[in-house]
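User: Continuing from earlier, I have the next pair ready.

Assistant: Great, send them over.

User: Here they are, in order.

Assistant: Folding the first of the pair now:
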Amino acid sequence: MSRIKAVILAGGLGVRLRPLTYVVPKPMLPLGDKPILERIITDLRDQGIRDVVISCSYLARVIESYFGDGSWLGVNIEYVKSDRPLGTAGQLRPVKDLVEGTFITVYGDVYAKIDYRDLVEYHKSKRATATMVLRKLKQAVRFGVVEVDGQGRVLTWREKPEVEYNVNAGIYVFEPKVFDYILEGIDSMDRVFRDMIERGERVYGYEFAGEVYDIGDMTSYEEAVKRFTEELGGI
């Protein structure tokens, strides 16, 4: 794991978390007694990863001022800064010259107690170009769901059924070949993955059953803080 670099994407504006993000970038919002970004970095460090690249833009100075070169956390931190938000994949492209071989990428607004070693081993066992961490969600449909055949005859009626599906957790393992698919300027990770899949790249999903704390908007952040606090025993 000491040969694996981690790239953290921390360049979003955090519009849905205003007014909190007027003065604090989204990845620096606290989860418990530490910024979510610090929790991500310390977990990576504790699993043997020492080299971290932070791709940032909005309020980048706040992030760099807090972490510095990372030595106080026992890691080496490099920064890539853009003058404007570039989207999830667009933030990754400037990192191209800083990574060699397999690397981990984590969204700066997502925290999960994941076994990165197992994730990397899974990725390598599949000889994948890209591996996406997946989490299962269950959601109740608000209406009765009716299935019909080709003639319009009703076959089933399920009242407010619960559906289960996989969603992207915002954590990936990539090979450098991913950079061949990222466009200059603003680009999104979903477009990159669709392009890779259409061109036959080896793209895999790694199912994760643990807790994922997502602070993408105010409701999600409040829920993450509540659940994290409960996990700590209400401290």
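And the other member of the pair:
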Amino acid sequence: MEQHGIDYIPADERKSAPRNVFSIFIGANLTFGLIVLGWLPISFGLGWWAAFWSIIAGAAIGAVVIIPIALMGPRTGTNGPVSSGAIFGVVGRIIGSLLALFIAIGFYALAVWTGGQVAVYGAHKLFGWSTGDAALGISYAIIAVISIIAAIWGHAKLVLVEKLLIPTVGTVMVIGFFVYAGKFNVHHAGGGYLLGSFWPTWALAVTISAAATYGYAPYVNDWTRHIARRRNTDRNLALATGGGAFLGLAFPLLFGAFTAVAFNDAKLDYVNGLVGITPKAFLIPLVIVGLIGSLGQSTVCIYSNGLDFSSIFPIFSRVTATIILSSIGVLFIFLGTLVWNAENTVSAFVSLFGVIAAAWIGIVVSGHFLRHGRYDPDALQVFNRGERGGIYWYTGGWNLRATLAWLLASGVGLLFLSTSLYAGPWSGLASGIDLSWISAMVVGAAGYLLAATVFPEPQAVLTADGSADPANLAPSLSELPGHSVPDPVPDSRPEQSSVPEER
């Protein structure tokens, strides 16, 4: 069982590699929680090729965005929100922890709900079994229990689960393209655009694919912190992250769009439409995809939940935090769908948190390049040890430049946002084109860089030598592509003195 939580992982204990990051991205997304998002462009009125290119464009944009964040993990030896303490301050990084926590719970619920529904509706068509609350509850419990066990066990079991899903669930989905090909119409032209015309509707579809991809930004360092830079180059990690994110999201989204064209009935929700056109011989594999495929994303979400909760309350170990959050998550899953019927509400809240996360991502990415990829891992752990000081203490543990930029960017993004629960006053300014996430990301990055220019950050922050980890002395990806860096030696330096609070 993995012993490390959000604490620094010494290089000699890092046993992972970029190929595992690639596998996690692929395996975690072979789930109907993602597949159903591929149905949306078709339901919006787009034709097949318009939906195809919206998915490709969105997944590509999202993959590019998260590459710089993935490169932080091997440098800081900890997860994404704690690593963001270099930009937001060691206390201010709680912003990232809370964002990651709420988004993970939302996607965990959506993955279990959709997977369980596919399994139950498929079994009903095949065997005539009930589709009532009891059957749904059993399917939810199966998915939840297995994913919780894997998440508690730690990173190694997480990687194992994702690797097992690729040749099993992945193969079933590949076969599915051929199974549904007879009903698929490559010339499907769509029509009746959701936003009244083609380009606004197409832009909305791009937004959904991009958000689904860059949504992994707060979590990718959960995996890359286990990678030692001596044995793995920045270039390899960038390729594994970008390639895994692009393929891992584009494939299930395209499967969703492909099958949506095959049943082509706007009156049906995706699960019922898919089950309705599925031959009986393929129903059992489809049920397997519903049950087993949901394990990938569920395990990733629960594992991240445990890390993020322990980063907010360092008194809890990773295992304890995972158990606590898993219990809350399971309770929410059962109440949300069997009592409150909250699935649409959760989707809207995920969209809202996605905008706020986009502002955070813009600031973290710009901060990474501003620091040339140099960090002091020991200074990032100050808050976790219950101490004060260090180069990332800024003002009371908060970097006001990043914090205020995040508040501004989040506010701007929410003004452009439109969901079933909330419509911002600016949501109709661009003929219905969704500018919420892109405006939040751009304003966040620009606002932070402007603030750091007008009110320069302490020089120690920008020239951190990574004294706790000599690997941080290595040039960034743009400075030295394709070269390896020695692993850090065991930490034997004297205790670092605190830096006076910035005024």
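Worth noting for the second one:
DSSP finds 20 helices and no strands in the chain. Confidence is low (pLDDT under 50) at residues 467-503.
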